[in-house]
Specification:
Blueprint (H helix, E strand, L loop, with lengths): L2 H4 L11 E3 L14 H4 L2 E7 L11 E3 L5 H9 L1 E6 L7 H10 L25 H6 L4 E6 L8 H4 L7 E3 L19 H10 L6 E6 L20 E3 L15 H29 L5 E7 L18 E8 L5 E3 L2 E2 L3 H8 L6 H9 L5 H13 L18 E2 L5 E8 L2 E7 L5 E5 L2 E2 L3 E4 L2 E5 L9 E5 L5 E4 L11
Parallel strand pairs: 2-7, 2-9, 4-12, 5-6, 5-7, 6-13
Antiparallel strand pairs: 1-11, 3-8, 4-10, 9-10, 14-15, 15-19, 16-17, 16-20, 18-19, 20-21
Amino acid sequence: ELCEIYGNNDFNDPESSKSEESNDEESYSVDDANSSELKPNIIMVQLESFFDVNFLKNYTFSENPVPNFIKLKNEYSSGYLTVPVYGAGTVNTEFEVITGMNTDFFGTREYPYRTILQSTTCESICYNLGKLGYHNYAIHNNTGTFYDRKDVFRNLGFDNFSSIEYMNHIEYNHIGWAKDDILTTEIFKALNANDIRDFIYTISVQSHGKYPDTIAGENQEIKVIAAPQNNRYDIEENNIDESFKNKLEYYVNQLAETDKFVGDLIDALSDYNEPTVVVFFGDHLPPLPFDEENLLNDKFQTEYVLWSNYPMEKVRRDLAAYQLNAYLMARLGIDNGVLTQFHQRCIDNSDYQEELKLLQYDILYGNRYVYGGENPFSEKAMEMGVFQPSISNIVIKNEDIYIYGDNFTPWSVVNVNEEPRETMFINQNTLLIPYEQMSYKNIYVAQVADNKIILSKSMEWDLHLDER
């Protein structure tokens, strides 16, 4: 029997966590604040290549790159997060957090997003919260086709996936990654889209490598300073190898902008009129050659912070990525899901890892005995974007055709008779295509990824040329 069918809830065992004085901020006023009664919005923010660079032993900085994150981890529940990858492999950390499964039990270098999740659904935080009435969003300021997320997220229980193709006003860094400040706008778009509680899984991208080894074209306000000791990156005593210094300096300046996004999001949510919790965590350390002796933390450790806009007890607890969502649910008084209950009640069992391996195999590859022999999770009819592009009118002016509507972005492409037309993005309500002598039937607007894959499209519209 798995942990004698789950034993006690060890995540809430006072002997298994270190409680600290609760924070006394009370942005959301409620009598006898209890998370399970509040049923808060839940936001998880997966921060690309993010960690506290003050953990580097041999380098200091002209200013602290991550003041907001440090403030949060000093004032709220936090801990180390052991992740399965170093320098790359974001989606394996993502998979562990969303499902509660340990990727150590998969094939060497396997990405479940590219194997088993292509063909089957899997228990996840989304399916478990969906049973409680939550609407599940994924938000990512990168293309929806990366790692097949547009398909995989359907099998993980997401209701909507808003990728970069559904965003406006994007800024890019020197090496072409979208900046993270747009994510605050997108998170609030999801929060305000309906009147029910939301689970929002947000994936940032700005701090992604490969970092330039020459001075970048952006203003590098934060400078890297060598500590007064030798290390393997020195050309000579107290000097940093120029190529490595440029990479590290570029990285910490991107990190500082992501940290500003963290602070801005918390400021905005502090005044939000619904109870809301946010978990920030790094997916892995950056793709830089850090040795263990250069770090105060382990190479496979990032950190997480649990923030709320209402009072919650401050607890310090170190976790693995596959334990994070069950721990969060325990803090909120939720135990929906077989894997959630298993982690919450069996984490200190001597056979914990062996039983987790058996459980994962049964769920994904076995006979699903734990569910009575059937897969209880149906693939979601997930919509791309929070709001879909729509056409409200089409007008011919001179030699151009103007398409009016809503929710257009630079990735909107007008299709006529199933053929994409050269499209100019004017703004979120207006697109333009050249007028040609032809039949204009079956006109629709498609959101198209850079690899030409159509992610979604509007309802069709016919233009009657005799009404010109």
